[in-house]
Each structure stands twice: as structure tokens, then as C-alpha cells.
Amino acid sequence: MEQAGGDLVVRQEPAPLTRHLRVRQERGHTVLEFRGEIDLAAATEIAPHLDRETDRPAARVVIDLSGIDFFDCSGLRLLYRARSRVLDRRGHVLLVCAHPLTLRVLRITGLSRILPPQPTLDAALEQPEATSRP
Questions:
Q1: Beta carbons of 131 and 116 less than 8 angstroms apart
Q2: Contact 116/79 with Cβ under 8 angstroms?
């Protein structure tokens, strides 16, 4: 809570779009915060929202995996899809991930070379615009 001109202002986190996805704005970026277990069922639930958020020209998107418990190939497909859609529209995309098993999967698949993960949201937002390469 904050005091603003004598009025009490209550800040609330935006409600999740789905059980596995929360979308919010942070420092001029759209943050797609994945949550829980990202498997085929979760990916099916997330995909339409991800498509809507990555359909904007010159979008500045951060995919935040810090709230995940599990991440399989369905999640990898979401990352590749988001990256491709954003870059096709001349935007940029950043990734936040510190989960050891997910980082290993990102390295093994080569995704970490084209979408380098940052350990925190703050670290990602401090990156230059050209972080994600075609």
C-alpha cells in the first residue's frame, strides 16, 4: 500500500490469465510469467494468450520461467514460437530462467544460444535490446 496525495492506494498484482500464465507490464516490456508445471496441458492453455501478446509490432517481451516447477518439450515449443513471432514483427524477446534442470534442457537443445537466459527479471531488463538473435 502507498500513500498518494492523502489517499490510500492499494496496488494489486494482475490476475493470472490462466493457472499457468500471468501477463504484466514492467519497464516497457510485456512480462509473460509462466507458473507451475509447463507440460502439454499447460502449453495448450498458454498458447492463445502467448500468441496474442507476441502479435504486436516491435513487441518487447520477457518470458519469465522463475515460477515453474517442471518444463518439458511443450514448454520449449512455446519459447521457440514466442521468439519467432516476436522477431518476425521486429521486436525483441528476453528469457529469465535459473532452474538448473530447465537451464540444462535449454543448453542441450541449443535454445540458450539464441535466447540467452538471465537469472532474474532485473538482469533481463538491464540487457541491451539486441539480446535475442535471429
A1: yes
A2: no
Which residue, 98, 18, 88, 6, is CA-closest to 32? 18
Query: What does the pLDDT read at residue 66?
Result: 96
8 Å CB contact between 37 and 6: no
Over the stretch 33-82, which tens digit does the pLDDT of each residue have? 999 999 999 999 999 999 999 999 999 999 999 999 999 999 999 999 99
Record the pTM: 0.83
Q: What is the 3-state secondary structure (H, E, C) of 71-125?
A: ECHHHHHHHHHHHHHHHHCCCEEEEECCCHHHHHHHHHHCHHHHCCEECCHHHHH
34 CB burial (10 A radius; 0-12, 13-18, 19+): buried
The pLDDT value given to residue 25: 95
